[in-house]
Amino acid sequence: MQRTTISMFAQLVQLMGGKIEFQNLVTHYQSDKEAKGLTTWSQFIAMLFCQLTGADSLREISDGLYSSLGKLSHIGATAVCRSTLSYANSKRPYKLYEDFYFVLLKKFRHEIQGRLGNRFTKPVFSPDSTTISLCLRLFEWAQHRRRKGGIKLHTLLNNDTSLPELIVETPAKTSDIKGAKGILEDIPAGSIVVMDRGYNDYSLFQRLTNKGVVFVTRFCVCHPLKRQRAAYVASSGSY
Question: The whole model's pTM is what?
């Protein structure tokens, strides 16, 4: 009996499943129409390889895939040169991958819930932000500093699933508290929000309290006026 060795990457793809649903989305968006050599599935595998290996460039993705041609055959994908992958990323509809994400989320939600255990009867969220650097020569609209460009992603993390509930994109120079107001206002009543001192805003704390949201944060009471307001919030039982 002949044994076949399947790579860990191929096993992860097989475990993920959902290829039938993926092909249904390909048909819906007609993303393989007039495709020359690179299917949408192979493009997806290439970008998944990029994420799992931490590749920093299209060349690194292409070289890594070409060095694993035999292993790609197990998952029905092919290697791709960097120019073809670049063209596919710029021309094919991103909505297909967005819809596929929610297909997988619905499929595996029951397996990723419960990370906090039974001690928490309310949903626990954490806001945070990250800055993504961009080449200023290519993205002039994303000017952050004199010679730097970038955007900032403000994320509301669900601590029970370790997945983002909401992501808001803003210019990199937008402060955390200003960008977070768009995501914190949509938190459902009865939730718990854990945030760092960068999100201290007493008017926001009051609105969360009025909605029945419990927040946990560190006080920043350097100024006497802030100390007074902090005492007011503390006395209202909002933390």
Answer: 0.70
